[in-house]
Structures are given as structure tokens and as C-alpha cells.
Amino acid sequence: MTGQPWSILRPHRIRWIECDLYAHANHTAYLTLFEDLRIEHWEKLTGAPPGYDRPSPVVAQIDVRYLRAAVFRDEVMLGVRCASFRRTSFVHEYAMMKEGQDLCTARIVCVVARQDTGEKVPIWGELRETLLAEGAIEG
Amino acid sequence: MTGQPWSILRPHRIRWIECDLYAHANHTAYLTLFEDLRIEHWEKLTGAPPGYDRPSPVVAQIDVRYLRAAVFRDEVMLGVRCASFRRTSFVHEYAMMKEGQDLCTARIVCVVARQDTGEKVPIWGELRETLLAEGAIEG
Amino acid sequence: MTGQPWSILRPHRIRWIECDLYAHANHTAYLTLFEDLRIEHWEKLTGAPPGYDRPSPVVAQIDVRYLRAAVFRDEVMLGVRCASFRRTSFVHEYAMMKEGQDLCTARIVCVVARQDTGEKVPIWGELRETLLAEGAIEG
Amino acid sequence: MTGQPWSILRPHRIRWIECDLYAHANHTAYLTLFEDLRIEHWEKLTGAPPGYDRPSPVVAQIDVRYLRAAVFRDEVMLGVRCASFRRTSFVHEYAMMKEGQDLCTARIVCVVARQDTGEKVPIWGELRETLLAEGAIEG
What we know:
The structure is a homotetramer. The first copy, chain A, is an alpha+beta fold. Chain A has two helices and six strands; from the N terminus they run βαββββαβ. In chain A, strands 1, 2, 3, 4, 5 and 6 form a six-stranded mixed beta sheet that branches. Chains in contact: A-B, A-C, A-D, B-C, B-D, C-D. Chain A binds chain B through residues 21-22, 27-28, 31-32, 35, 52, 58-66, 115, and chain B through 21-22, 27-28, 31-32, 35, 52, 58-66, 115.
């Protein structure tokens, strides 16, 4: 994990539906919460949420560490930031935190693509500038 | 991915609920299907499904690659095998395949622990023998 | 609930993901399992699964009774049948059963509509014949 | 639906995970959002969220009408109120609204029970007073 600031950081309270028999958040619940951040971040960067007919992030690889279990009713913080990017892809870092400690961290590689054509889309000039301004590293 | 045989290999048809706006299986849907295999494999190995008051696998780390999208009604195969194990943890490999090609592969590290005591549990003799017999590597 | 035979009846084992902190299937898990039956039944009746550009069932009203809780690893049976139909809608009955007893029953009203045009579609002649042959009542 | 004020009314933005191939919220997504309200309402009424070892609401029957589809990114309002109660049960009314119009309404019967003993629990005096003060009708 890099040390740059979070692009989005917001609170969440662990929901009933997110928990399993152990009263822990299921391992996929963290990823769905991170998905919300990814969509919000993309909308913030590009002015539009992901859609079928425009360049949108597609998850290609995820690497997730579950450090301490989040439990029902936990008040946690969720963060996302873009660590780096290349011609048609970027790397996001995510964390779920509680009282300053990481419960879960993730590194997710996304490809920018259009669903209607199936083609990868190079990161365009304005998007590149915004990512650099947020602290992302090119290359 | 190692080349050993799958411990469990079974068919699945992609469900409506697993798909998102793109008609693709959501990235978490693959993980929930793998979770089913993990539970079934654990029951096959130990004679009991995971439970609160007995040693059970807890997901500590996942590394997943999404190679080609699974879409609604796809007939796929799902496989799991234990690649290796150490004193209190093991590494599972998973795949979703279609017509012989990988759509998604995952490497998941689980710790064996009891939820009621919160303690890690060393892999016991009989479990060790079964894992070795399945082709898992120790260490 | 009517007494006609089930059009589809099949086994299911309650999954980890379907259960909540009480180790019971969440009340929505029953509905998602019924959704699978609805889609399969529609494909059986019409030769194609629901889709954006063809007449497909849309849920308009549900009435569900939870009689006894299904728990993790329960082996249950799931059934669906069409009880009745009108010009552009039909009523499905569903049940989850265990050892001959109902755990959950549902009555679901669906409208037949196309998503691409937003229009309701009258039940056509061949579909009407098939529904009557399955025991559904017209009107 | 009765005309009393909502006990809880709050905004929600339809999430990616809540939507299916039609870009509509899946019919179960509404129910999970209503579940959050039910839990929050119970905590507001009794001072504690539902739990295994204390009286908690258990869903016995749901009657839901889907009037207009909620779609991805819709800004909606969610409301819950207790319409009536009897010795060991109560009836909740829920709605998802957009721009003042109902998208979905539900009437849900809950039994008050303890999971650890399996017993129904009569609504106690203080809870009864609170429900009456919120506008719920007894009987």
C-alpha cells in the first residue's frame, strides 16, 4: 500500500445482510463495498458512472488481505485511491478501517474498456491529468 | 496454478442473480461459488462442514484473476484443490472454466481456526495425510 | 395454494451465503431460489430464458409466508407451478419443502412485458395452451 | 397503507450490486433495504439491535408490490413505520419512493421471538407505549 491520501473516504456500518453465521462480514461483502467506491471514484473522475456504452473500469485482478474480521454493526471507514496507471489500466488501493486499524486491504487492477465494442480504451489526457493530480504514478 | 487434479470439479449454470448490468457475472459471484467448493471440500476432508465450535477454514488472503467474463446461462465447470499447507494454514486453488478455458482462477490462503476460542488450530495428523494423498505439498 | 402438480421440482442444499447470523436462510434467499425456478420455468415454456428484447416475466407482487426456518446444510425441495393466468399476467405458486413439510410458500404475480419497448405483451396462443396443459386456470 | 408518518425515512442511491441485467434493482434488493430499516427501527425502539439471545423480530409474512422499477443510480427515499401490533407480533409498512411517487410498498408481519429458546415473546409494556406513541394501532 502506498501512503498517498484517499480519494474517497467514508463511513459505513456493517449490515445484517453482509454477515454470515459467524456474525462476521462475509469475505465478498468487503469487495462489494469497495465496488461502490470504485464506481463513485470513476464518476468523480470522469463525470459519469460506469455504463455499457462508454469507457468503464473492468476488474481484471484482485489481491485482498483480510486482517481482522468486521462484525455486525461495526462502524468502519472505507477508502479508495488510485496508486498507478498504465496505457489502458489502473491499480486501485482500498481499505476498510476501524478505529485507525486496517481490517481489510485490497489492490485491484482494472482495465478501461467499452462493453458495447469489447475494446480496451487508452486513458485519455484529461483523465491522466486528474489521476496524476490525485497522486497516482504513471507506468 | 499447479497441475494436480481437482479435488472437486462440478458444473454450474450462471444464474440471473449472479449477473450485473453488463449481463456478466459480478466479480464477487465467482468467489461465492468458490466458497461453496471450499465448504464442500472441508466437509469431504474432515467429515463436518465449517462451524462455530470446531476447526474451520477462515479466508486470510485471496488473489483472483478474471480472464474472460462468464455471462448469464453459461455452462461452466468449477474446480478446487489444495496446493499446499503449513502448520495452521493451507492454500487452495480454484478455477471457473468454460469449454476447457479458464474464465477465472484464484489462489486463496485459509487459516484453520475456531471461532468460539479465536485460536488457530494446527492441521492434525489425519487431515495432513488426506491433504498429502490429494497431492498437496507440505511447507 | 392449489393442489396441482409442480411444473418443476428439484432439490437444493442451503448454502453458507444464504444464511445469516442465526444460521437461518435470510428471507431474501428463498426468493432468489424461487427466481431461478421462475426463469427455468419460463425457458421451459417458451424455449428461451428471459431477455431484454423479448417477452419476459416481470415481478409485480409477491406474497410470501415463512413457516419454518431453513438452516445451513438443509436438504430442501423447491417447486414452482403456474396457478392461473390472465391476458398479460400470470400467478405462480412456489414452495420450499423439507421432509414433506412446507418451510416457505409464495404466490407471485408476474406481468409479461418487453424491457426494450416497456410494453406489456398478451399471452400468446401457444403459451396459453402450454399453461392450460400444465393445469393453470384461465381468468 | 396507513397514513401515519414514517418512523424512519432516509435517502438511498441504488447501487450497482442491487441491479440486474435490465439495470433495474432486483426484486430482493428492495427487501434487503427494508431489512436495514427494520433493524434500525428495532434498535431505536428497544435500545439494542436484533440478536440471538434477546427478543428480536422474525419475518413471518411479506406482501410486496412493485409499482415502478428503481434503476441504477436512482436517488430514492426509504421509509418504515409500524402500522399495528398484537400480543407477540407487529405489522410494518415500508416504501421506496422517488420524487414523491411509490416505487415499491410492502407490508411485513414480524413475530417477536428469541432464537436461543425458540420462544415467542409478548410485546412488553415499554415497547407497547413506544409503538402507540409512534401511531401504531393495537389489535
